[in-house]
Every structure is written in C-alpha cells, then in structure tokens.
Amino acid sequence: MSRKSIDTCLKEMDKILKKNNKRIKQFKLSVRQYLEQERDKLANEKSVWNASSDMIESLFGCHKFKRSRNPLHGVTACVLILPLPTRTGDRGHPSAIGFKHCLEGVFMKDLES
C-alpha cells in the first residue's frame, strides 16, 4: 500500500458504497480507520507498505526447500531461520525490527507447544 493507493481506495469506496444505512456507515468507518492507520505508518510519499501474504508464503517455501527433502515435512524448530532472509523498510531506511532480540525470546519448548 502507498499513500496514493490508499487515497484511491477511500475515494472508490465512497463512490461504490453510496447507501447511508447503519451497516454501510459502520463498514466504511472501519475500513477508513484501518487504511488511515496504515497510511500513517508510511514515512513519506514514496514509502510503500507491503500487505501481501506472498512474502510469507515465499519464506516458508524457501524454508521447506532448504531444510527438508520431503515437501510434506512440517515446520520444525528450524523455523527460527525464517527471519534471516527478510529485510523490512526502505533501502535507505531499514526498519528498527530487532530480529535477533525477537529470536532470543523463543525457546524450543515454545516451538514444540
């Protein structure tokens, strides 16, 4: 999502959903609030917020390819390597997500449960 795509979505929603009954108003308010919150996360006009499961599916695909010869093999404790090929934020301004810190808080017993 980008500021432009969010603004376009909000305009289209107002065009398409013209009825002003209670349910439509509540739906539009909910969508508007969500999109505005996501827009507020963007640093500037050129920033983009990726909201696709394709990246997550790709990570799991890479994980299964590298860790198991059996494609039906489930996710094991090796799931801890999933964040390693990821990068968040813009190229010049990487995100402040501390993957190392996050990984240090997960234990084998957590994965088993």
Structure in words:
The protein has 113 residues and is mainly alpha-helical. The protein folds into two domains: 38 residues; 59 residues, no CATH class. The chain contains five helices and no strands. Helix 1 runs antiparallel to helix 2. The longest helix has 19 residues. The two termini are 35 Å apart. The relative contact order is 0.10.
Give a nutshell description of this structure:
The chain is built from five helices and no strands. α1 packs antiparallel against α2.
Strand residues, percent: under 5%
Distance between the termini: 35 Å
User: What's the tally of helices?
Assistant: 5
So what's the overall shape? elongated
Total beta-strand segments: 0
The stretches of 5 or more residues where confidence is low (pLDDT under 50) are: none
Count of domain modules:
2
What is the ordering of alpha helices and beta strands?
A: HHHHH
Residues in helices, as a percent range: 40-55%
Mean pLDDT: 75
Largest sheet composition: none
Report the structural category: mainly alpha
| Rg, nearest Å | 20 Å
